[in-house]
Amino acid sequence: MTKLRVGLLFGGRSGEHEVSIKSARAIAKALSAEQNANKYEILPFYIQKDGRWLAGEAPEKVLETGTPLLEAEQSTSVGNLTSNPQAQTLSKWQSPSQVAQVDVWFPILHGPNGEDGTIQGLLTLMQVPFVGSGVLGSALGMDKIAMKMAFEQAGLPQVKYKAITRTQVWSNPCVFPKLCDEIEAALGYPAFVKPANLGSSVGIAKVRSRQELEAALDNAASYDRRLVVEAGVVAREVECAVLGNDQPQASVIGEITYDSDFYDYETKYTEGRADLLIPAQLPDAIARQIQDMALQAFAAVDAAGLARVDFFYVEATQEVLINEINTLPGFTATSMYPQLWAHSGVSFPELVDRLIQLAIERHSPS
Predict the structure, then answer these.
(1) Residues 303, 287: Cα–Cα separation, whole Å
(2) Could you write out the DSSP letters of every residue in 231-259?
(3) Which residues lie closer than 8 Å to 131 by C-beta, 6 or more apart?
(4) Model pLDDT, residue 263
(5) Which helix (H) or strand (E) holds 45?
(6) Is the pLDDT of residue 81 over 50?
(7) What are 304-339's pLDDT values in tens digits?
(8) Distance CA 189, CA 15 (A)
(9) Most CB within 10 Å of its CB: which of 72, 205, 280, 333?
(10) DSSP state at residue 68
(11) Nearest to 90 by CA among 141, 138, 53, 40
(12) Who has greater pLDDT, 265 or 135?
């Protein structure tokens, strides 16, 4: 049987470079598992932090060690391309020749330039199947404002929010106070200020006063030209995984618990700071509602392959509010997405296999 050559694409230019490496290592291990070893051949491609693509020994070394290439190692890796300075600059936008050998891509790039539709557009132009959502689903899943508009159109309940631009924040000193007045009147305190297009809680702040609001808006504007401010809510944070294309399935529900003020970057990526409870202890009717809403959100943004959908469950009122969808969630052995499927009866190697088959199915002529 001829093996399918899987282009495992990882690293990237975002702040989630290291998380991408961890996800890629777990996927590579799953592809090498007994039930997959005879079906797939791994062709790893590593995108450095400066945007250069590497194939061959360099990505294999990163997968083996689990650490990004050091600058000296990067120079050695690309130094054999050419000694011409102009060509070296151009080489950032050139892909290795091994790209032509790929039968199906498995991009596991988190954050900007990875799950926002940009790499998906490139892979679409290659006319090769790839795991996950296309350009539209990825872009809507990344931009929190566009995402919220899609959810609103689909009739999915969510917290109150206000969309803001960097220009409004860094505007005339007479205009900025009026903007803060509007936010306070519409949302009150506490509230959350977020860049619209960053992942992993980067640039997010919880604010309880005018002074904190002003500082948080200024900080978030340094990360993105589009911002969103959300009303705070006292609720449990629960998540549901979705798998499929036009007829997706929803997993059991999981819950995140933590002792910090909110689920910030440090809490998310520091071992022992947060706990995953699977399955979450919820009334059956609430669990079914969350699963239904997860499938609706998946369809609302035109997602494909996989997604993790996050919710707020307000126990006092029995309300379920959608928070966001993540179309390329963390994929380490301990990440919520594969854990949810493991508790739903789908092992990690089987999950990877199904995602590749879904990619082929979606890109096959009907």
Answers:
(1) 21
(2) E----EEEEEEEEESSS-EEEEEEEEEES
(3) 104, 105, 106, 107, 305, 306, 355, 356, 358, 359
(4) 56
(5) strand 40-47
(6) no
(7) 999 999 999 999 999 999 999 999 999 998 899 999
(8) 29
(9) 280
(10) P
(11) 53
(12) 135
Can you tell me which residue has the tokens 């509230």? 191
Strands, DSSP E only, in 154-280? 161-165, 191-195, 205-207, 226-231, 236-244, 249-258, 274-277
Give the pair of three-digit tokens for residue 93. 């936008």
Quote the CA–CA distance of 55 and 349 in Å, as a whole number.
24
Mean pLDDT for the chain overall: 90
Residue 83 predicted with pLDDT over 70: no
Q: Where are the alpha helices (DSSP H) in 257-335?
A: 265-269, 284-300
pLDDT tens-digit map of 333-357 = 889 999 999 999 999 999 999 999 9
Cβ(31)–Cβ(40) under 8 Å?
yes
Residue type present at position 144:
K
pLDDT of amino acid 270? 56
Q: Is 42 helix (H, G, I), strand (E, B) or coil?
A: strand
323 sits in which H/E element = strand 319-326
CA torsion sign, 250 to 254 to 260 to 261?
Answer: positive
Place of tokens 């301990």: 334
